[in-house]
Each structure stands twice: as structure tokens, then as C-alpha cells.
Amino acid sequence: MHHPLMVGAALLYAALRLNHGWLHQPLPTLVSSYLGDLLCLPLLLSLALAAHRGLIDRCGTLPVAWLVGAWAGVSVWFEGLLPLWSPRAVADPFDVLAYGLGAWLFHHWLNRPLPQGAPR
Length: 120
Description:
This protein is mainly alpha-helical. The chain has helices spanning 4-23, 29-55, 64-85, 93-110.
């Protein structure tokens, strides 16, 4: 949970939400439309990895099947089901790609085993 990329992603997401909720500064369309979706799975999976390490395997990683399952679950929920029930939700296939890229980024940069004897 102390990985610099995870902390950076959390701060970037917080800044994005702060701007959306209070500051209302104009951002490029790609940033305002897809950055939150890109950061969603790295942040969610980092929390899952911390729980996995705390409960199951202290130095382990999340299996690729879990990453694919998280990508599929988030995509189906936010881009398939939620738009059916909420007028504020919009199905966007590029969001699905952003979730997938976020899962891929997590897999390649954050989902690394801890060295034996490393502090949690």
C-alpha cells in the first residue's frame, strides 16, 4: 500500500475528484472522461492486494484470473448494468478499454511479490 505508483494514483484520483466537485477547472476531454476509469482498477486492485497479503499470502501477488475478473466485473457493472437503472450513468466502450488498461498497468507495475522479510 506504500508503493509510490499507488500513492501517486490515489493522489491523482483525489485531485480529479476535487476538481470535479469543487474547483471546476477545465480539463482536456481525455483527462476528464477517462482518467478516473484508468485509475479505478489500479486503486481497487491495490486494496485487494493488500487484503490478500494480510490474509492469505504475505509476499504474494494477485492471480491474473482475479485481474481479468475484476476488469470484467467493473466493466459489466458500470458500462452494462448501471446505465439501465441510472440516468446519470452512460455506457461507453472506451471506459471498458480504460479499465482494461488500468488492470494491465496494475499487473505490470504494482502486482509484484514482496521480497522475503520485507515489512508490510
